[in-house]
Protein backbone atom coordinates (compact mmCIF):
# COMPACT_ATOMS: atom_id res chain seq x y z
CA UNK A 1 0.00 0.00 0.00
CA UNK A 2 2.82 2.44 0.84
CA UNK A 3 4.50 1.66 -2.48
CA UNK A 4 1.22 2.09 -4.40
CA UNK A 5 0.67 5.55 -2.88
CA UNK A 6 4.22 6.55 -3.75
CA UNK A 7 3.91 5.27 -7.33
CA UNK A 8 0.61 7.02 -7.90
CA UNK A 9 2.18 10.22 -6.59
CA UNK A 10 5.12 9.81 -8.95
CA UNK A 11 2.70 9.66 -11.88
CA UNK A 12 1.35 13.07 -10.88
CA UNK A 13 4.85 14.58 -10.69
CA UNK A 14 7.10 12.46 -12.94
CA UNK A 15 9.80 15.10 -13.37
CA UNK A 16 10.45 15.28 -9.64
CA UNK A 17 10.62 11.50 -9.42
CA UNK A 18 12.99 11.17 -12.34
CA UNK A 19 15.42 13.65 -10.83
CA UNK A 20 15.26 12.42 -7.24
CA UNK A 21 18.84 12.06 -5.99
CA UNK A 22 20.32 8.63 -5.58
CA UNK A 23 21.69 7.72 -2.15
CA UNK A 24 24.09 5.06 -1.04
CA UNK A 25 21.92 3.07 1.32
CA UNK A 26 19.29 4.38 3.70
CA UNK A 27 21.02 4.41 7.04
CA UNK A 28 19.66 7.79 8.07
CA UNK A 29 15.91 7.43 7.61
CA UNK A 30 13.77 10.15 9.21
CA UNK A 31 10.40 9.46 10.82
CA UNK A 32 8.13 8.39 7.98
CA UNK A 33 4.83 8.14 9.84
CA UNK A 34 4.91 11.81 10.99
CA UNK A 35 4.43 10.91 14.64
CA UNK A 36 6.43 12.43 17.44
CA UNK A 37 9.00 10.33 19.23
CA UNK A 38 6.91 10.34 22.40
CA UNK A 39 3.87 9.12 20.47
CA UNK A 40 5.92 6.36 18.88
CA UNK A 41 7.23 5.38 22.29
CA UNK A 42 3.71 5.10 23.65
CA UNK A 43 2.44 3.21 20.62
CA UNK A 44 5.35 0.81 20.63
CA UNK A 45 5.49 0.30 24.38
CA UNK A 46 5.19 -3.36 25.11
CA UNK A 47 5.33 -4.34 21.44
CA UNK A 48 7.96 -7.00 22.14
CA UNK A 49 5.90 -8.56 24.92
CA UNK A 50 2.26 -7.85 24.03
CA UNK A 51 -0.50 -8.17 26.59
CA UNK A 52 -2.36 -11.10 25.11
CA UNK A 53 -5.58 -10.16 26.94
CA UNK A 54 -6.01 -7.61 24.18
CA UNK A 55 -6.00 -10.14 21.37
CA UNK A 56 -9.04 -12.35 21.90
CA UNK A 57 -12.29 -11.77 20.06
CA UNK A 58 -13.77 -8.57 21.45
CA UNK A 59 -17.43 -8.94 22.51
CA UNK A 60 -20.05 -6.36 21.63
CA UNK A 61 -21.19 -6.24 25.25
CA UNK A 62 -18.12 -6.25 27.55
CA UNK A 63 -18.33 -8.40 30.69
CA UNK A 64 -18.75 -6.46 33.90
CA UNK A 65 -15.28 -7.45 35.09
CA UNK A 66 -12.76 -7.48 32.28
CA UNK A 67 -9.10 -6.51 32.17
CA UNK A 68 -8.78 -2.84 31.31
CA UNK A 69 -7.38 -2.20 27.83
CA UNK A 70 -4.48 0.03 27.00
CA UNK A 71 -5.41 3.73 27.15
CA UNK A 72 -4.09 4.03 23.59
CA UNK A 73 -7.16 2.64 21.87
CA UNK A 74 -10.02 3.79 19.68
CA UNK A 75 -13.76 3.38 19.90
CA UNK A 76 -15.57 1.40 17.25
CA UNK A 77 -17.60 3.63 14.92
CA UNK A 78 -20.53 1.25 14.60
CA UNK A 79 -21.61 0.38 18.13
CA UNK A 80 -20.68 1.09 21.72
CA UNK A 81 -18.11 -1.67 21.97
CA UNK A 82 -14.99 -2.17 24.00
CA UNK A 83 -12.15 -0.15 22.42
CA UNK A 84 -9.76 -1.87 20.05
CA UNK A 85 -6.16 -1.78 21.32
CA UNK A 86 -3.77 0.08 19.06
CA UNK A 87 -0.91 -2.34 19.72
CA UNK A 88 -1.64 -5.83 18.43
CA UNK A 89 0.33 -8.51 16.59
CA UNK A 90 0.34 -8.07 12.80
CA UNK A 91 1.88 -9.50 9.67
CA UNK A 92 2.33 -8.52 6.01
CA UNK A 93 0.34 -11.52 4.76
CA UNK A 94 -2.34 -11.35 7.45
CA UNK A 95 -5.66 -9.57 7.73
CA UNK A 96 -4.61 -6.71 9.98
CA UNK A 97 -8.04 -5.06 10.29
CA UNK A 98 -10.58 -6.13 12.93
CA UNK A 99 -13.49 -7.65 11.02
CA UNK A 100 -17.12 -7.28 12.05
CA UNK A 101 -19.22 -10.44 12.19
CA UNK A 102 -23.01 -10.68 11.73
CA UNK A 103 -23.26 -11.54 15.45
CA UNK A 104 -21.89 -8.11 16.35
CA UNK A 105 -18.48 -9.22 17.59
CA UNK A 106 -15.08 -8.57 16.00
CA UNK A 107 -12.49 -11.03 14.76
CA UNK A 108 -8.75 -10.40 14.72
CA UNK A 109 -6.08 -12.62 13.21
CA UNK A 110 -4.22 -13.32 16.44
CA UNK A 111 -5.76 -14.26 19.78
CA UNK A 112 -4.23 -15.19 23.11
CA UNK A 113 -4.66 -18.85 22.19
CA UNK A 114 -3.25 -18.74 18.67
CA UNK A 115 -0.52 -16.12 18.33
CA UNK A 116 2.25 -18.56 19.39
CA UNK A 117 0.65 -21.66 17.88
CA UNK A 118 1.78 -23.47 14.77
CA UNK A 119 0.36 -22.07 11.53
CA UNK A 120 -0.75 -25.60 10.65
CA UNK A 121 -3.12 -25.46 13.63
CA UNK A 122 -4.33 -21.87 13.40
CA UNK A 123 -4.44 -21.43 9.64
CA UNK A 124 -2.65 -18.07 9.85
CA UNK A 125 1.09 -17.30 9.71
CA UNK A 126 2.80 -16.35 12.95
CA UNK A 127 2.86 -12.59 13.58
CA UNK A 128 6.17 -10.99 12.70
CA UNK A 129 5.54 -7.43 13.85
CA UNK A 130 3.04 -5.25 15.73
CA UNK A 131 0.52 -2.71 14.51
CA UNK A 132 2.64 0.04 16.07
CA UNK A 133 5.65 -0.92 13.95
CA UNK A 134 4.38 -2.19 10.61
CA UNK A 135 4.09 1.18 8.83
CA UNK A 136 7.57 2.36 9.83
CA UNK A 137 9.04 -1.02 8.91
CA UNK A 138 7.30 -0.91 5.53
CA UNK A 139 8.61 2.58 4.78
CA UNK A 140 12.14 1.70 5.87
CA UNK A 141 12.07 -1.48 3.76
CA UNK A 142 10.96 0.40 0.64
CA UNK A 143 13.62 3.06 1.08
CA UNK A 144 16.32 0.44 1.61
CA UNK A 145 15.19 -1.22 -1.62
CA UNK A 146 15.26 2.06 -3.56
CA UNK A 147 16.27 5.32 -1.80
CA UNK A 148 14.59 7.39 -4.53
CA UNK A 149 11.26 6.54 -2.86
CA UNK A 150 12.12 8.45 0.30
CA UNK A 151 10.78 11.91 -0.69
CA UNK A 152 7.61 10.34 -2.11
CA UNK A 153 6.99 8.33 1.06
CA UNK A 154 7.63 11.31 3.30
CA UNK A 155 5.15 13.40 1.28
CA UNK A 156 2.41 10.75 1.20
CA UNK A 157 1.74 9.51 4.73
CA UNK A 158 -0.18 6.22 4.66
CA UNK A 159 -2.63 6.54 7.55
CA UNK A 160 -4.39 3.33 6.51
CA UNK A 161 -1.56 1.26 8.04
CA UNK A 162 -0.92 3.49 11.05
CA UNK A 163 -1.93 2.07 14.45
CA UNK A 164 -5.09 4.18 14.30
CA UNK A 165 -5.93 3.02 10.79
CA UNK A 166 -5.37 -0.62 11.68
CA UNK A 167 -7.75 -0.29 14.64
CA UNK A 168 -10.70 0.74 12.47
CA UNK A 169 -13.35 -1.97 12.36
CA UNK A 170 -14.32 -3.25 8.90
CA UNK A 171 -17.58 -4.90 7.86
CA UNK A 172 -16.47 -7.16 4.97
CA UNK A 173 -19.98 -7.54 3.56
CA UNK A 174 -20.52 -3.79 3.51
CA UNK A 175 -17.11 -3.18 1.95
CA UNK A 176 -17.69 -5.69 -0.86
CA UNK A 177 -21.21 -4.40 -1.53
CA UNK A 178 -19.92 -0.83 -1.69
CA UNK A 179 -17.35 -1.92 -4.25
CA UNK A 180 -20.05 -3.46 -6.44
CA UNK A 181 -22.21 -0.35 -6.15
CA UNK A 182 -19.29 1.86 -7.21
CA UNK A 183 -18.52 -0.06 -10.40
CA UNK A 184 -18.70 2.11 -13.53
CA UNK A 185 -20.45 5.05 -11.82
CA UNK A 186 -19.21 8.31 -10.33
CA UNK A 187 -18.43 8.63 -6.65
CA UNK A 188 -21.47 10.83 -6.09
CA UNK A 189 -23.74 8.31 -7.81
CA UNK A 190 -22.28 5.44 -5.78
CA UNK A 191 -22.88 7.31 -2.51
CA UNK A 192 -26.45 8.08 -3.52
CA UNK A 193 -27.13 4.42 -4.35
CA UNK A 194 -25.57 3.27 -1.08
CA UNK A 195 -27.67 5.68 0.99
CA UNK A 196 -30.85 4.54 -0.76
CA UNK A 197 -29.84 0.90 -0.30
CA UNK A 198 -29.31 1.37 3.44
CA UNK A 199 -32.64 3.17 3.71
CA UNK A 200 -34.38 0.04 2.43
CA UNK A 201 -33.48 -1.66 5.73
CA UNK A 202 -34.45 0.67 8.61
CA UNK A 203 -32.68 -0.15 11.86
CA UNK A 204 -34.18 -0.10 15.32
CA UNK A 205 -33.45 3.12 17.17
CA UNK A 206 -31.80 1.27 20.06
CA UNK A 207 -29.24 -0.18 17.62
CA UNK A 208 -28.01 3.26 16.59
CA UNK A 209 -25.55 5.62 18.20
CA UNK A 210 -26.88 9.15 18.81
CA UNK A 211 -24.79 10.47 15.90
CA UNK A 212 -25.62 7.64 13.50
CA UNK A 213 -28.40 7.81 10.92
CA UNK A 214 -28.53 4.19 9.79
CA UNK A 215 -26.71 0.87 9.77
CA UNK A 216 -25.68 -1.15 6.74
CA UNK A 217 -27.89 -4.25 6.44
CA UNK A 218 -26.53 -7.68 7.29
CA UNK A 219 -26.29 -10.53 4.75
CA UNK A 220 -29.25 -12.27 6.39
CA UNK A 221 -31.38 -9.16 5.76
CA UNK A 222 -30.37 -8.84 2.11
CA UNK A 223 -30.36 -12.48 0.99
CA UNK A 224 -34.16 -13.06 1.13
CA UNK A 225 -34.94 -9.88 -0.83
CA UNK A 226 -36.15 -9.92 -4.42
CA UNK A 227 -33.92 -8.39 -7.06
CA UNK A 228 -36.76 -6.02 -7.96
CA UNK A 229 -36.85 -4.72 -4.39
CA UNK A 230 -33.09 -4.14 -4.30
CA UNK A 231 -33.28 -2.28 -7.60
CA UNK A 232 -35.44 0.40 -6.00
CA UNK A 233 -32.21 1.76 -4.48
CA UNK A 234 -31.01 2.66 -7.96
CA UNK A 235 -29.06 -0.52 -8.64
CA UNK A 236 -29.00 -2.06 -12.09
CA UNK A 237 -30.53 -5.53 -12.40
CA UNK A 238 -27.07 -7.06 -12.72
CA UNK A 239 -25.68 -5.30 -9.63
CA UNK A 240 -28.77 -6.22 -7.60
CA UNK A 241 -28.19 -9.86 -8.57
CA UNK A 242 -24.52 -9.58 -7.59
CA UNK A 243 -25.31 -8.16 -4.14
CA UNK A 244 -28.07 -10.71 -3.48
CA UNK A 245 -25.69 -13.52 -4.50
CA UNK A 246 -22.94 -12.11 -2.28
CA UNK A 247 -25.32 -11.99 0.68
CA UNK A 248 -26.35 -15.60 0.07
CA UNK A 249 -22.71 -16.72 0.16
CA UNK A 250 -22.23 -15.03 3.54
CA UNK A 251 -25.44 -16.58 4.86
CA UNK A 252 -24.57 -20.14 3.77
CA UNK A 253 -21.03 -19.83 5.17
CA UNK A 254 -19.17 -19.98 1.89
CA UNK A 255 -17.82 -16.54 2.80
CA UNK A 256 -17.29 -15.30 6.34
CA UNK A 257 -15.20 -12.95 8.43
CA UNK A 258 -13.42 -15.99 9.87
CA UNK A 259 -12.42 -17.19 6.39
CA UNK A 260 -11.15 -13.73 5.46
CA UNK A 261 -9.01 -13.71 8.61
CA UNK A 262 -7.53 -17.18 8.06
CA UNK A 263 -7.05 -17.24 4.28
CA UNK A 264 -3.76 -16.56 2.54
CA UNK A 265 -3.42 -13.75 0.01
CA UNK A 266 -3.81 -16.26 -2.82
CA UNK A 267 -6.89 -17.86 -1.26
CA UNK A 268 -8.53 -14.46 -0.79
CA UNK A 269 -8.10 -13.68 -4.48
CA UNK A 270 -9.25 -17.14 -5.56
CA UNK A 271 -12.37 -17.31 -3.39
CA UNK A 272 -13.60 -13.78 -3.98
CA UNK A 273 -12.99 -13.62 -7.73
CA UNK A 274 -15.22 -16.72 -7.97
CA UNK A 275 -18.11 -14.53 -6.77
CA UNK A 276 -20.20 -12.98 -9.54
CA UNK A 277 -19.61 -9.25 -9.70
CA UNK A 278 -16.15 -9.29 -8.10
CA UNK A 279 -13.28 -9.00 -10.57
CA UNK A 280 -9.59 -9.24 -9.77
CA UNK A 281 -9.10 -5.49 -9.37
CA UNK A 282 -12.10 -5.17 -7.02
CA UNK A 283 -10.84 -8.02 -4.86
CA UNK A 284 -7.31 -6.62 -4.74
CA UNK A 285 -8.64 -3.24 -3.60
CA UNK A 286 -10.71 -4.99 -0.92
CA UNK A 287 -7.73 -7.02 0.28
CA UNK A 288 -5.57 -3.91 0.54
CA UNK A 289 -7.92 -1.15 1.71
CA UNK A 290 -10.40 -3.20 3.80
CA UNK A 291 -8.44 -6.21 5.07
CA UNK A 292 -5.24 -4.13 5.40
CA UNK A 293 -2.98 -6.72 3.77
CA UNK A 294 0.32 -5.14 2.80
CA UNK A 295 1.58 -7.14 -0.19
CA UNK A 296 -1.32 -6.74 -2.61
CA UNK A 297 0.18 -5.37 -5.84
CA UNK A 298 -2.42 -4.60 -8.51
CA UNK A 299 -0.65 -4.71 -11.86
CA UNK A 300 -3.94 -4.01 -13.64
CA UNK A 301 -4.43 -0.68 -11.84
CA UNK A 302 -3.71 2.06 -14.37
CA UNK A 303 -2.63 4.47 -11.64
CA UNK A 304 -0.03 2.00 -10.37
CA UNK A 305 1.08 1.23 -13.94
CA UNK A 306 1.46 4.90 -14.78
CA UNK A 307 3.28 5.64 -11.54
CA UNK A 308 5.73 2.78 -11.98
CA UNK A 309 6.40 3.81 -15.58
CA UNK A 310 7.11 7.38 -14.46
CA UNK A 311 9.34 6.13 -11.66
CA UNK A 312 11.30 4.03 -14.17
CA UNK A 313 11.90 7.16 -16.26
CA UNK A 314 9.43 6.41 -19.07
CA UNK A 315 7.59 9.18 -20.91
CA UNK A 316 4.08 8.55 -19.65
CA UNK A 317 2.51 11.27 -21.80
CA UNK A 318 3.82 9.54 -24.91
CA UNK A 319 2.71 6.16 -23.63
CA UNK A 320 -0.75 7.53 -22.83
CA UNK A 321 -1.18 8.56 -26.46
CA UNK A 322 -0.38 5.04 -27.68
CA UNK A 323 -3.12 2.47 -27.98
CA UNK A 324 -1.44 -0.14 -25.85
CA UNK A 325 -4.60 -1.54 -24.29
CA UNK A 326 -4.55 -2.71 -20.70
CA UNK A 327 -0.76 -2.69 -20.46
CA UNK A 328 0.00 0.54 -22.31
CA UNK A 329 2.30 1.94 -19.61
CA UNK A 330 4.20 -1.21 -18.58
CA UNK A 331 3.78 -4.93 -19.16
CA UNK A 332 2.66 -7.08 -16.27
CA UNK A 333 5.90 -9.08 -16.42
CA UNK A 334 7.99 -5.90 -16.13
CA UNK A 335 5.89 -4.64 -13.22
CA UNK A 336 6.26 -7.89 -11.30
CA UNK A 337 9.98 -8.01 -11.99
CA UNK A 338 10.65 -4.45 -10.83
CA UNK A 339 8.36 -4.70 -7.80
CA UNK A 340 9.74 -7.98 -6.44
CA UNK A 341 12.38 -6.25 -4.32
CA UNK A 342 9.72 -4.27 -2.49
CA UNK A 343 7.82 -7.34 -1.20
CA UNK A 344 6.19 -7.87 1.26
CA UNK A 345 5.18 -4.19 1.41
CA UNK A 346 4.03 -3.51 -2.15
Q: What would your notes on this structure say?
A:
With 346 residues, this protein is mainly alpha-helical. It has 18 helices and six strands. It has helices spanning 2-12, 14-18, 37-44, 119-122, 134-145, 150-155, 163-166, 172-181, 187-199, 219-222, 227-231, 237-251, 257-262, 265-273, 280-290, 302-311, 316-321, 332-339; strands at 73-74, 84-85, 89-90, 99-100, 106-107, 129-130. A two-stranded antiparallel ribbon has the order 1-2. Strands 3-6 form a two-stranded antiparallel ribbon. The chain has a two-stranded antiparallel ribbon with strand order 4-5. Helix 1 crosses helix 16 and helix 8 packs across helix 15. It is globular, with a radius of gyration of 21 Å. Mean pLDDT is 79; it is low at 14-80.
Structural class of the secondary elements?
mainly alpha
Largest sheet: 2 strands, antiparallel
- Integer-rounded radius of gyration: 21 Å
SSE pattern, N- to C-terminal: HHHEEEEEHEHHHHHHHHHHHHHH
Find the count of extended strands (DSSP E, 2+ residues).
6
β-strand percent reads under 5%
Regions with little confidence, pLDDT below 50 for 5+ residues: 14-80
Helix content: 40-55%
Q: What best-fitting shape do the alpha-carbon axes yield?
A: globular
Query: How much is the average pLDDT?
Result: 79
| Count of alpha and pi helical runs | 18
Span between termini: 6 Å
Main-sheet strand order equals 1-2
Which helices and strands, and how do they pair?
Elements: H1 2-12, H2 14-18, H3 37-44, E1 73-74, E2 84-85, E3 89-90, E4 99-100, E5 106-107, H4 119-122, E6 129-130, H5 134-145, H6 150-155, H7 163-166, H8 172-181, H9 187-199, H10 219-222, H11 227-231, H12 237-251, H13 257-262, H14 265-273, H15 280-290, H16 302-311, H17 316-321, H18 332-339
Antiparallel strand pairs: 1-2, 3-6, 4-5
Helix pairs in contact: 1-16, 8-12, 8-15, 14-15
